[in-house]
Predict the structure.
Amino acid sequence: MSISALVLSILGFLISLSIFKDLSLILCVLAIVLGIIALVKKKGKAICIISIVLAVFGLIFVFSEDNGTTVSSNNTNNTSSNNGSTSQPTNKEEAKIYGLNEEITINVSGNEYALTITGIQEMKERNQFSEKTPAQVFLVDYTYKNISSGDTIYISDMNFKIIDEQGEIGDTYSNNTERSPQNITEGITCKSQMVLCVNNESSKVKLQYFDNMFNSKPDATFELDIVK
């Protein structure tokens, strides 16, 4: 059991340095649990302590806000081509606001990829099996490209949070889409769709993007007008 904890902690620590923070979180937590159990059973005390320490450092990297992530816009005039919202200068205190069709580049410790929100429109269709009763449901089109990441890139609705005009956070919604996200290797582009919903009628929404879904602050925020 102590050996298993050590293996998991090493994997979790190494993966915490990549973009797969969610996998690292799972491995580190498992390593800590197995390490504690092995300690209680007095099996390989030194190995257990090393495993727990490595796993803790892995979790620190997972939840660290300063993980080497930088975001830049590829739009030379810094203005959205569709909704007219102007991007403001960015710093650590004030996040930049991006618009529809504005491509941004995300660099995570040298792993670089691009993301663009290419469309958002209200859906009339509802999932009869869903227990959610939102005021509005949106079909969001987005494109991402693996520019120079050795790891595969996968961006889904789990990386986004939607905020309505009243400042209330929305949710994901299970509805039909034509294109699903896929893992892509370097040089590959994926055009995908997701479905999100809000509880208050809105003509404009904010879409927060999290490279690491466990971070408390978004890496980028998009402000989008709704197409009826």
